[in-house]
């Protein structure tokens, strides 16, 4: 460990692994350390014994729910947009060669006490029972606008300037009712709250277009999920024999304690100490837990991992779904998210389902009660594990001391906010925006090197 590295990354959460991979393929010498003896850090996937040890130490899992090795339970479950940035990150770093994805079977929204499939095209809009007769026509015109919009063709803009007009201006132009606005903003654009309404419309329009394009790619839903759980993704960067780490010169160390981040006389990072060893570097990337004195807590996320004996009711017995419960439907300031996967994804025993309910904590009482709207959708719950995690963000941008800290994972059941953090961190670290270009495969690069 007593060497000098271009960059040291602390923690094997997905944000850290993506940045480690991006820098590695750019030729940087990267040392990647995690104090845990497993990959994934906060977003690890646990087997049954690990799950019980974490939440119910001293107890053992009941034999009736299946074998230990049948389970890979995500602590922070998130789905991937089929056309989203997370897929581009994994493709750019060639990690997709180690992963197999399965589509999430359905995307739903809770409205007026019921679960509805999320329509994403003008055809689905006019057939969905989510809209009334006249609202269907208005929704159809909105989706036609979304599908036909071209930046370089003013005739498709319908008089709207997406950088000047707010999203409420767009909704008003198409005469969309508050219920439709709520569905579009939360179930398709996947905004966390209603703050977006008074912001320029471009971001929301692009998010809805991404949702629709991802939906069109495979049908059923816009989401993908890796077999064996999200813990497979960090392992794709490091664990396999011919891995990204091995090809590009990165070094991974698990179960390695980190005693301190070392600074020079000018307050800039100079290394990382573990016991008597110091690895030298002028750049550190880490999750908030490795730099607790440099982050602030801005809220909390409550999550409940639920083991079910059945699919979520009213979802056509789907083996996997996302359900968004918009804030306005339940009198909250933040949405509640339900993500469900099953044995079809090799994450639990046959005929079992994993449902995870999450939201931002708003009150000072019992955080678990804030998930009640999600629990009501699940039916009988076999086992439940509840956790509350702080939402942390860096106090500074990292440019002064060259310690760049990621944000905590939020309550959403998708990776788009994680991708935003990767882009932000990469620009702060390199001074340049992240541009994912088409690159050669590992086989092609090896062949070129051999030649």
Automatic annotation (TrEMBL):
Please indicate which superkingdom the organism of origin belongs to.
Eukaryota
Gene Ontology cellular component? cytoplasm
One Pfam family linked to the record: GDI
- A GO BP term, please? vesicle-mediated transport
- GO MF, any single term: Rab GDP-dissociation inhibitor activity
Q: Which InterPro entries match?
A: FAD/NAD-bd_sf, GDP_dissociation_inhibitor, RabGDI
The record's listing under PANTHER family reads: RAB GDP DISSOCIATION INHIBITOR, RAB GDP-DISSOCIATION INHIBITOR
- Family to which this protein belongs: Belongs to the Rab GDI family.
Record protein name field: Rab GDP dissociation inhibitor
């Amino acid at each position: 460990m007593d060497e000098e590295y271009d960059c040291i990354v602390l923690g094997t959460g997905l944000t850290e692994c993506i940045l480690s991979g991006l820098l590695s393929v750019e030729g940087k010498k990267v040392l990647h350390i995690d104090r845990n003896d497993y990959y994934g850090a906060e977003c690890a996937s646990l087997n049954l014994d690990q799950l019980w040890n974490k939440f119910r130490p001293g107890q053992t899992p009941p034999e009736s729910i299946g074998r230990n090795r049948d389970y890979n339970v995500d602590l922070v479950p998130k789905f991937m947009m089929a056309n989203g940035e997370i897929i581009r990150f994994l493709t750019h770093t060639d990690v997709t060669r180690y992963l197999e994805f399965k589509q999430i079977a359905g995307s739903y929204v809770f409205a007026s006490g019921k679960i509805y499939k999320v329509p994403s095209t003008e055809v689905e809009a006019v057939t969905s029972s989510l809209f009334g007769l006249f609202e269907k026509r208005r929704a159809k015109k909105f989706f036609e606008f979304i599908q036909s919009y071209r930046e370089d063709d003013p005739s498709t803009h319908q008089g709207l300037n997406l950088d000047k007009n707010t999203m409420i201006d767009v909704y008003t132009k198409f005469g969309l009712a508050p219920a439709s606005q709520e569905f579009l903003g939360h179930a398709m654009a996947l905004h966390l709250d209603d703050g977006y309404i008074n912001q320029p419309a471009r971001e929301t329009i692009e998010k809805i277009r991404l949702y629709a394009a991802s939906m069109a790619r495979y049908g059923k839903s816009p989401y993908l999920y890796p077999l064996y759980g999200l813990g497979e993704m960090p392992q794709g960067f490091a664990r396999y024999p011919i891995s990204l780490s091995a090809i590009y010169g990165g070094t991974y160390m698990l179960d390695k304690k980190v005693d301190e981040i070392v600074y020079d006389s000018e307050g800039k990072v100079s290394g990382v100490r573990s016991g008597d060893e110091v690895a030298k570097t002028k750049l550190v990337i880490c999750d908030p837990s490795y730099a607790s004195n440099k982050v602030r807590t801005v809220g909390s996320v409550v999550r409940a991992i639920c083991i079910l004996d059945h699919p979520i009711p009213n979802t056509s017995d789907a083996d996997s779904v996302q359900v968004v419960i918009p804030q306005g439907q339940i009198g909250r300031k933040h949405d509640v998210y339900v993500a469900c996967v099953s044995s079809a994804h090799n994450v639990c025993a046959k005929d079992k389902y994993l449902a995870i309910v999450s939201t931002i904590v708003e009150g000072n009482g019992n955080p678990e009660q804030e998930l009640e709207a999600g629990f009501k959708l699940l039916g009988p719950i076999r086992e439940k594990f509840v956790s509350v995690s702080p939402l942390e963000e860096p106090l500074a941008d990292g440019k002064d001391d060259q310690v760049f800290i990621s944000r905590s994972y939020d309550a959403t059941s998708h990776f788009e906010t994680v991708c935003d953090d990767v882009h932000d961190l990469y620009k702060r670290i390199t001074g340049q925006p992240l541009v994912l270009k088409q690159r050669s495969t590992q086989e092609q690069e090896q062949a070129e090197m051999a030649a």
